[in-house]
Structure formats: C-alpha cells, structure tokens
Amino acid sequence: MPHINAAAALQISMLLFALPAQYFISQWYGTDSAERIQITERLIIASWRISTRSYLNLDAWAYCLKLWLSKTRICLYVELLILYFRNWYYGENKTKNGDNEAKPHSYLAESTHVQSPKPEYIKFCVGQVIIHRRFGYSGVIVGWDVKANTPEEQLQPRYPLVKQDLKYTPHYRILINKANGFGKSTAYVPEEEITVIMGLEVYHPDMETYFSGYDGSKYIMQPWLKKLYPHD
C-alpha cells in the first residue's frame, strides 16, 4: 500500500470536497441549467483524471510496491547482518570463556593435578592450622606448591634481590582466620614465614568447601581435596 504523507492526505481531502464544491460553483456560473451541467461535468472529469493519476493508476501502485519491497529488503539485509555479527561476537566470547573455564589456571597452589609423591622437604600438610610469623594472623593450609607458582610480574615486587631464593622454596595457600580481622581472606606464603599451631579453630566462609571437620590437631579434608593431596 502506498505511503500516505501529509501532501497526499491534503490532496485526498481536496478531492473529497471537490464534488460538492463543484456543484455549488456550477450553480453560480453559467446562464442556464445546460451550461451549469456542462461545467460540472468538466470539473468532475478533471478531478477524476487527477485522482486516477495518483491512486487508481497501476503504474503508480507498482512503483510504490517496488519502493516498499526495496526498503523491506534492505531492512532485512541489515537485520541479518546485525544478527550475524551478534552471534559471531557472543559466540566467540562464549568459546573463549568456555576455554578459560575448561582450563583453570594452576597458580597459587590451586592446581587440579594430584600432588603425588609428596617431596620430603615439604614440612606442612593441608588441613594444618598455622600462624604467620611476621603478620601474626592465623589460618589453615588448603594447598601447596613445591616452589612459588605465580605470574612473574607478581613475583618480582614481592621478592627483592635479597630474597630471590624464597621463590624456589615450598609455598602454601592459606585461608585466613576471619577472627583476625586481617582484611584479606587468603594468602600465598613461603614456608619460612609460617609455623604450625595446635588446638586453634579457623573461621572462614569457605571452610566447608575444603574440610568436613576438625579433629583438634588438623582439619579433615573433603574427599575431592584428599584426592589432590593423598599423602597429607
């Protein structure tokens, strides 16, 4: 259907009022009834020709239909392109995120590899409660690495030249006791900075994820954690 804009609407209105207007006009012009009828007929024919050129002409309708289809086709192409790029963008991001989830990093004693056999030089075990020698907070061990396992850019400011050797000593992941109000919930520390303490319970929101209970000397590992550290 052709698009009716303001100009077209005005034209239709004029046509609707043309016939009565023509009748009244014809009453004022002409000397007799025959002449008035002739004038009215000419006006009606002229109005009909104008209307047929605009709204009863097949070529005009075909042109409007062609224009509408072309606009619709363009809109369809645009929508298809938007849909394609949207699917491509989100699909690619989803794949990347999926890869990250499928391959979690192994930094900071969070590796999913089974730690077996356990080297003899690793003194402490998962589940033992510790106190930090320098900062004084307490916590529980939830994992260990045979040496510091963290991105190099984090190691450099943490271990200056005088402490470079610490990078190659065992490191432990700690859930910090909430009762200490230390401000941090976890820590990753070298072996020389901690010492084991007995009979102290740790409060942390993730305790039940890692442990099923406390026997007075150490926390009992959940089955999934025991599989990773079978010798602790």
Topology:
Elements: H1 6-28, H2 33-54, H3 58-102, E1 129-132, E2 138-145, H4 152-158, E3 171-176, E4 186-190, E5 194-196, H5 207-210, E6 211-214, E7 219-221, H6 223-228
Antiparallel strand pairs: 1-2, 1-5, 2-3, 3-4, 6-7
Helix pairs in contact: 1-2
Keywords: Signal
InterPro entries: Clp_protease_adapter_ClpF (IPR053189), Hemimethylated_DNA-bd_dom (IPR011722), Hemimethylated_DNA-bd_sf (IPR036623)
Protein name: FBX21 protein
Main sheet summary: 5 strands, antiparallel
User: Which residues form runs of ≥5 with pLDDT under 50?
Assistant: 92-104
| First-last Cα distance | 81 Å
SSE pattern: HHHEEHEEEHEEH
> Quaternary arrangement of the chains shown?
single chain
Q: Count of helical segments? A: 6
Q: What's the mean pLDDT score? A: 75
- What is the radius of gyration computed over CA atoms, rounded to a whole number of angstroms? 43 Å
What amount of the residues lies in strands? 5-15%
Question: How many strand elements?
Answer: 7
Range of helix content: 40-55%
Coarse morphology = rod-shaped
Strand order of the largest sheet: 4-3-2-1-5
SS-based class = alpha+beta
Can you tag this structure with a few keywords?
5-stranded antiparallel β-sheet; 46% helix; two-stranded antiparallel ribbon; 232 residues; alpha+beta
Quick synopsis:
With 232 residues, this protein is α+β, with helices and mostly antiparallel strands. 46% of the residues lie in helices and 14% in strands. The chain has a five-stranded antiparallel beta sheet, with no helix packed on it. A two-stranded antiparallel ribbon has the order 6-7.
